[in-house]
Amino acid sequence: MNQLLIAFPVVFLFLIICSTFSAAQSPAAAPALSVPLVPSGPTVVTAAPAPAGPTSLISILKKDGRFGVFIKLLQSTKVSDNIDSQLIDSSNGLTVFAPTDSAFSNLKTGTLNSFTDEQKTELVQFHVLPNYISPSQFQTTSNPLRTQAGGSPELLAMNITAVGNMVNITTGETNTSVANTIYDDNQLAVYEVGKVLLPRRFYEPLPPPPPSPPPPKKSAPKASPVYVAPVDSSTDKCLSKKAFHAMACVVLFLAVFP
């Protein structure tokens, strides 16, 4: 019995040593996989920003904040609507010379109010060129420039001279320069000008139109031909014979009765 009690601790110690050695030799257990408690939802894809809308001249000028009078003229004359439509439909682009509010305030008092509605429309159109001109193209632009006001090239045209970065504009009534490029996207160019561009047409009357050609003269009606009755040749012969016989009778009578 005493031998059994002595042997039991030895066996127990032996088992502990064996179990420790086995644990050291066994490979490490793989880490447990983490399982999300809440299932993930669908992947959210952020949409690309919407493309910018068509170019708006009014929006460009409002963003600058110095063109209130010019904006009112563009809207009241409906020229801004035409410009926006042309930018969509035409590939030639447009060039706009925009006078600031201070440029309008430098006009003589009452000048703008003295213009008729038709003249106001023409004034705004005079600040718009029907094609795109970049800053570098002012160096090679041919004069005179035709504006959207159209009309007489002498009274509704402008000339541009460029020396380096200096661009000068003359209209015959206004002499100013391009102060700054407000907007340029290779289709629309908007330039700030220091003065309102006044056309000569407002101060010099247009030459009178050439007289219309006289109406063609109507030719006199042809006279109706006069009817001439044909002459009967047999009647002429009869008369000639009677005259001959009468003449012969007279000669014979004079011979018998001298």
UniProtKB/TrEMBL annotation:
Domain FAS1, first and last residues per copy: 54-197
Signal peptide limits: 1-24
InterPro entries tied to this protein: FAS1_dom_sf, FAS1_domain, FLA_A
Keyword entries, A-Z: Cell membrane, Glycoprotein, GPI-anchor, Lipoprotein, Membrane, Proteoglycan, Signal
Residue segments, region Disordered: 204-224
Comp. bias intervals (Pro residues): 205-218
GO CC, alphabetical: plasma membrane; side of membrane
GO BP term, example: plant-type secondary cell wall biogenesis
Domain of life: Eukaryota
Cellular localisation: Cell membrane
Entry keyword Protein biosynthesis: no
Membrane topology per record: Lipid-anchor; GPI-anchor
Family, as annotated: Belongs to the fasciclin-like AGP family.
Function: May be a cell surface adhesion protein.
Protein name as annotated: FASCICLIN-like arabinogalactan-protein 11
Higher taxonomy: Eukaryota, Viridiplantae, Streptophyta, Embryophyta, Tracheophyta
